Amino acid sequence: MLDLSVSSGLFEWVILPALIFCARICDVSLGTIRVIFISKGIKYLAPAIGFFEVIIWLLAIGQVMNNLTNIASYIAYGGGFAAGTFIGMLIEEKISLGLTGVRIITSDDPARLVQYLRSQNYGVTCVDGQGANGRVKMVFSIIRRQNLPDVVDVIRRFNPGAFYSVEDVKSVSEGVFPEERRRFSIPYSEALRYFRKGK
User: Distance (Å, rounded) from C-alpha 172 to C-alpha 38?
Assistant: First the structure.
């Protein structure tokens, strides 16, 4: 016969904490995606994700509250939050939604850098400036976030000593961008466009 005490102990100390851990990974990851969608103006998907996020959180916290003497539940809850944060960051890197502004400041001639970026269909603006150690060139470009690693590689190749900064851009009226890389038959950024504000 099955030993009920062993079965109960297995559920309490292994299965239940594992379920809590997985639930926290799911709800924290969804929370990360929801915040990203809010910041990008995707107003219809963010509430839907929030609905499922809070339902999963309620299930997880309910199990913790029902097993207040089980220290494994606390550890699983905290561990799931940490793991969910990390996984959410990985997801955020993968989907790479939105636009990014790149500002490059260099004392060297950026002509080859500018020419290469324009040949790849990036919109580039180049102006003169005055830095702490003399005259500099400032190069500005608004790019899709998914193209940022490529642009950084180009900067390091043509002007390795250049200073550059990167910042999120909420929206632009128009611009010049390379053709979007398609991982699927319909790019997810194009699909999500219909969920943005004003669409």
Answer: 17
